[in-house]
């Protein structure tokens, strides 16, 4: 399809603009400056052929409903269609009268091309060209990927295939890894399966569980009442403990306040006013002293600064003269230099006069050529050089065209006869689906092997493991009810064992704690227990018995007997007194002894209960193992075996699915084997050896490669004949262009002789001589102007310097006769320095006088404030203490200090009473003092220690009771809800769904990667030879003969790679090519593909957008030749904003190019 006319009726910035393409042109160049609408016209072609998109950027001038495009197109068979396109959703194709056309009216002209294919394959810009070159480096020049990318415009195929493989490996691989999603789902499935075993709902001792919860609640209520009593008593004692130090501080403050009772009472507000008056009085006296010192200092400073008014009166004249000193000195320096520059310019003019040949400077200035004459000579110089370059280029192009014509003639002669491969292609079409069946067979076989391995792994992971899944159905396994019964029995006994263990541990902990307290208490001084006291009293009574008998009988007693009695009596009294003094400690020790006896008895009972439960569990486990002996298995816990039984059912179902997949694989294998006979017949017809009995896929690829080779040879022969005719026509056109250039040379020579007369040169002068003369004449006007300007500047400097000297002499004579012999600038600078000094002293003296006046005013103000402050202080004192009204200020300050200290003590006492109210929880102070008097500090501490021990024992008992109740309640909630096993079952189902999704995603990704690789391989096998041959010829043209074509190399893995064939011999890999040469190779592959496509279907126009923006002029010319070379089969349209591209196209292609300007 070719565009004959493009009408931009209402589109973007265009209104009623029509672009007509010349039908006989082999290349169309659309030239438009930046912002001229080139991009708009480029987008218009796409919207015209495939319709406006939903949103468009080109409705900024015309409303969307009014957008219109029109065109006339011509098909390869000569059919034409004139149509228009409007913006809309349906029936957008219309004719000139706005009547709708069928939606498929363009289908015969587009040949089934979609918008995406058109933009990618039939459109190319400089950025895409450069990206395509880089893509060939990324795939390391692999033939299939390079041809596929260049032909389709798609890039990143290698990265896409690698990404698909990496994503598939992230889902599943034979080696297990935690980051793979398949194994993550498998792990969740195993976890849920174990949870089902552990959390199954079971019936049990429901009534006993409720009784246990109720008993624990009653014990907690009783314990709560005891803890409230202990907490109340502890709060009272803690309150007394907190209040005691505060009460002591209040009493100490009362004593300090009473110590200064002789001081008169005064109101706190008056005390504050007295303090403020004292502070003001002190501040006023200090300020008066500072003001007096400042006045004396200001007087001395003002008298020490002299003034000089003499120079001040003529300050303006001195400053004016001083500002001109630099100009005077600069003029003295610049004047010799300017005069020297004027002399040099005169010498330059003399040299120019000699070069040009004028008799003197006046005649030189009068005979200058005009700007038009000089411009004419410069233009003719450029034209002459351009003409010479064109002659040289045409001669080279004509020689190259003749050589190409002769070479192609030799190729046609050497190729001989070839045969059309179309019959073989038609015979190969029935086997087109064989590749799909091979891929499906391989994928199914891989899936069967993977599922078999997974099934084997799952069976091996079972506990106990299963070696043969088929034997599972024949095993005499216990039923699910039997497993549930044993599970209920053993789980119930283990819960009883846990509760019994907790009670045993709690009893042991309580007994250990009691023993620890007893040891710690006995580690100090001995405790006066009731047993010790009774023992000592018995010894005393025994010692008194002999004395009683002697007294009754009237006998005298032995001194030793009396002494023994006295010692026994003393020990009994001492121990009784010690027991009375340490009553709390003795009572606590006795209570702990009683508690320890009860705790030891409870511990022994708990040990007996625990041993009985252990015996019952052992009997149940033995019966459980006997139930599995017929199956020959050593069972795990009942919960695990229940899940094991469910897993075995899943394994049997999976084995059945595998059998179905094996049947489908065998069916595919039969259909694949049936294709061997047709393949053998095609091998013979293609001239190949009979296919072996090996891999049928490799045989099919070998046959396809053979057919592609035959096709490439046939197409190459056809193509070479067409190129020979084109090369002959090109040689003739270039020869005619050479003749036309000779006539242009003669006309230029005549203009050249006439243009040299104003320069005074002969007609035989060369352009280089004319350039020298022009260079000299260009300099003359500037030199003449420069000399005149320098002379005027020197005269002005002399005038200014004379005026400055006159003014300086007058000032020195009037103000500083001592400077009469000093140079003018030095005298003026000295006068300026004296003036600056005088002005500074004048300003300093004025500032000091002002400060003296301010200091005098400040002193008078300070004295007034001092007197007022003393009067205010006297009045304040007289209000409350008249006898101190006339006292000195220090005496008044001493009384104020005593009053202020007493007020601070009273405020602190008030604050402490507030703290006491907070510490006493709001109780009256009298009640707190009564409580403190009743209990000494040591009694409070002893009682708090006893209550703390009692609270600790209550907390331990509460923890044990609460733990028993919490465990029982959680167990009851679990039995009531029964959600543990259901949640685990749901999680297992979710994990199974994730496993299925992961398997499906893995299969899709693997198939996509395989299909992408197969597509590249088939593209390489089916189109490799003809495309590479044609692309090599275009590559030779694009590189100007630097490369003669393309060749194939093979790497270590026998992968075919593209390489460039240098004209001097040797191959260059894609990665070794320069960036510009890679761009040329990519363009050659794209153009070869478009030509191949045009031979098989209706092609669309090829649109190039600033395609050669990165090319130099030589490469641009070669590229234009290549575009024109495909113009016979595909319409190439090049959009550009570079005018030199259009000029190069006109120079190289002549009438074969159609240049249009927007």
Automatic annotation (TrEMBL):
The keyword Transcription does not apply. Residues 493-507 have a biased composition (Basic and acidic residues). Keywords: Coiled coil. It holds the Pfam family AAA_27. Residues 206-243, 274-301, 391-418 form a coiled coil. Residues 1-206 form the YhaN AAA domain. It comes from the Bacteria. InterPro entries: P-loop_NTPase, YhaN_AAA. The keyword Coiled coil applies. Residues 493-521 are annotated as: Disordered. This is Uncharacterized protein YhaN. The lineage of its organism: Bacteria, Pseudomonadati, Pseudomonadota, Alphaproteobacteria, Hyphomicrobiales.
